[in-house]
Amino acid sequence: MWTAVLLACVGCYALKLAGLSLPERVLSHPTVERVADLIPVALLAALVAVQVFSSGTALALDARVLGVAFAVVALLLRMPFLVVVVGAALVAGLARLV
Amino acid sequence: MSDAALSPGERSGIVRDSLAVGVATGAYGIGFGAVSVASGLSVAQTCVLSLLMFTGASQFALAGVVAAGGAPMSGAATALLLGTRNTLYGLRMAPLLQWRGWRRFAAAHVLIDESTAMAVNRDSTAGARLGFATTGIAVFVLWNLATAVGAVAGEAVGDPRTFGLDAAVGAAFLALLWPRLEARRNVVVAVAAAAVALAMVPVSAPGVPVLAAGGVALLVGVLAGRRRAAPAGRTADADGGHR
Questions:
Q1: What are the residues whose beta carbons fall under 8 Å from the beta carbon of A97, sequence distance 6 or more?
Q2: CB–CB contact A1 B41 (8 Å)
Q3: How many domains does chain A have?
Q4: Chain segment B165-197, per-residue pLDDT in tens
Q5: Whole-number Cα distances in Å, B212 to B192, B200, B229
Q6: Residues A72, A84 within the same domain
Q7: Which of A84, A95, A96 sits opposite B175 (nearest CB)?
C-alpha cells in the first residue's frame, strides 16, 4: 500500500509541475488555447453533476439536489460565494432532518 | 493582461473569496480523512496523501478503488489519470502566473481545481498570483488539518452527509463554474460534459466520469476551430474577441 501511495504522490506532483513547465507556445495554437479554456468548464460541470447526482458508481437523487437548487437561486441573485456554499449545506442538512 | 498593481479593494476581495474557497474545500477534508481510513488506509497513509498528493479528486479516487477491493496500484493509476487534469491547469496558469525558479516548484504543489479557478479569471498577473497563492495555501493548510481530524476521528465523524457537506462541495464547484457560463458555447460544453459524466457513472470506476467529460472540451474545441475556419474573414474578428 505504501508503494502505491508514494508512487501516486510523486506522479501527481510531476503532472502538476509539467503543466507549469512546458513551453508557453504549446498554448499558442488557437485550437489548443480553445481546448484549454473549455477544459475547466467541462470538468467543473462534470464535477458538479457527479458530486450531486451520484453515489459511488450509482446515480442518486437525494437531499444534495435541494442544496444545489438553493445554490442556483443564490447564484442568480448574485449572493457571495460563502452564502452559496454554506446555504447549500444547510438546506441539504435540514432536508435530511425532515 | 495588465501588470498594474491591485487596489486595496481588489486585494481584499480576492483574499476574501479565496479564503472562503479554502474553508469550504478544507472542511471536506474531514470527509476524505474518514473515508480513507474506512477504506483501509492507515492514518499515516491518509495524512501523507493529503500532504504530498494534495489533489482531492485523485485522493478520493485512490481510496475509493481500494475500498471497492481494487489493487492499491490500480488505485494509484486512477489517481494519476485524474491528476492529468492538473497538467492542463498548469498549461493554462503558467502564462498568467509567470513564476520561475523555486516559486514555480512551490506553485506546482498547490496547482489544483480551486487555486486555478480562483486565478484564471483575473485580468492581471498580480491578481492571478494573489488568488492562486491565497487559495492554494488556505486549501492546503485547512485540507491537511481536516484530513488529520477526519482520519483520527474515523467513522464517528466520517459521514460527509452530516451537515450537508456533500451538497456544499457540489455547490462550490457550481459557484466556480458560474462565471464561465456567459458564453453560449461554454453552456453547451457544460451541459454535455455533465451528461457524459453521469452516463459514465454506472459503468466506470469512480473518478473516470469526470475525466471522460474532459473529452467534450477536446471535441468542441477542435470542431469549433474547423467550423470557424470556413467563412473566411471572420476568423480574426472572432479570435480577437476571445479574451
A1: none
A2: yes
A3: 2
A4: 677 777 877 887 898 898 999 999 999 999 999
A5: 11, 8, 27
A6: yes
A7: A84
Residue A2 domain flag: no
- Residue A83 belongs to a domain: yes
Q: Name the residue range of residue A46's domain.
A: 24-58
Contact residues, B window 104-123, toward A, CB-based 8 Å cutoff: 104-105, 107-109, 111, 113, 116-117, 120
Does any CB of chain B come closer than 8 Å to the CB of residue A28? no
Indicate whether A89 belongs to any domain. Answer: yes
Residue B125 DSSP one-character state: H
User: Which of these ranges, A61-65, A67-71, B208-212, has the smallest mean pLDDT?
Assistant: B208-212
Interaxial angle between packed helices A2-21 and B101-109, expressed in degrees from 0 to 180 and rounded to the nearest 10: 130
- Name the residue in chain B with its Cα closest to that of A39: B217
Measure B146 CA to nearest chain A CA, in Å: 17
Which pTM was predicted? 0.65
| A68 lies in some domain | yes
A44–chain B nearest CA distance, Å: 6
Angle of the A63-76 helix axis to the A81-97 helix axis, nearest 10 = 150
Residue B147, pLDDT score: 92
Co-location of A77 and A97 in the same domain:
yes
Residue of B117, B190, B218 with shortest CB distance to A35:
B218
